[in-house]
């Protein structure tokens, strides 16, 4: 068994196509097809079902690919350990990012990281939390940046970066808007029960955020009237700023929005929150560069947590203190 064969079979399983897998591996289709035929003949069992346009793993193929991923993970861990031993500073980190949140962290971390490790490249993938979990477990991501509640964790390692509350944003024309804090004063609490007749813009229903927000509406005794469900936090703030609806979103997303001062903000009573984590597979060796990346991510979290403790709204440009 050659490591090259393992890589080939993983690529075919991931792409479901000889042509796409060959393209990703920078080899010819005929060469890859011959490798598959040769391996199946050696093993004496079919690894993929074939039709004109697609390849799908058989039961035997699934076992082969799952174990191939484990072997490749062992290879990567071994190389990381050896890299530390000889202080090698060349390589790649594959990082999963959630929409909007992840880019803020990465743009804070990357300049410092790149000065220390200019030979290490990042491969970034924007994915929802559940998909990041699956990709990390399958060895397709080295690290993921995820925001979730304790109940959403799976069998991975989690390093907390910062915790933040979900806050309620209401249009300035709303009857409750006058109860918001004056500049420099603490944000007051507001009960969701008072907004039963209002319309809301919220994140997509299958998002981790909704898994935290929806129980708060249920506890308030109603399901919110929905104007729109979106994947963009800045759209939620803009809709509230234009007076169309109310919204609930993470503190940090309101903090960095250019429309934040056109909305009245309140903490929820009782408060609800989630935590941002760096996550990776258990029993993974973290080389020197990976440990430095995590250190910088923690610094970002500490900066942002400090900014969120300040009175809000304030006159400071959003995100400036955290380098966002």
TrEMBL record:
InterPro entries: HTH-type_LysR_regulators, LysR_HTH_N, LysR_subst-bd, WH-like_DNA-bd_sf, WH_DNA-bd_sf. Keywords: DNA-binding, Transcription, Transcription regulation. One of its GO terms (molecular function) is DNA binding. One of its GO terms (cellular component) is cytosol. Residues 1-58 form the HTH lysR-type domain. Belongs to the LysR transcriptional regulatory family. This is HTH lysR-type domain-containing protein. It comes from [Clostridium] citroniae WAL-19142. The lineage of its organism: Bacteria, Bacillati, Bacillota, Clostridia, Lachnospirales.
